[in-house]
Every structure is written in structure tokens, then in C-alpha cells.
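Each field is listed here:
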Amino acid sequence: MNDSIDQQVENAAGSGDLDQLRRLAAAGSSDAEDVLVELAGERGDVDELRRLAAGGNSDALDVLEELES
């Protein structure tokens, strides 16, 4: 992955910029998607986890199942 993208993901994660993380994930950054799953799990954001799971993210599905059990 591009160092610039890595830095953008790191900056967005550090500042909690979910919109930027979503943009980066939509552009193909699996790291951004991983951070979104992690943050959504920490916040208990079921809607975000469902959105990510619907997009095929199996980690989001796993976290969602844990939260809903």
C-alpha cells in the first residue's frame, strides 16, 4: 500500500475521523476498514458494523455477532 494512504489512515484513526476512514475504505484501504471495525466494536456501533458486514467484511460480522449475543 501507498505510504501516503497509510499515513492518512493513521491520521484519521488517531483523530477519530470516521468519514475519512470510510472514504479510504471505499477507495480500497483494508487498513482503514480494519480501523473502522475496531472503532465500531469499541463504541458498540451496531449500524456501522452492519454496514461493514453487508459489504463483505467478515471481521465486522464476527464483532457484530459478539455484541448481539
In short: Residues 4 and 10 are 10 Å apart (CA to CA).
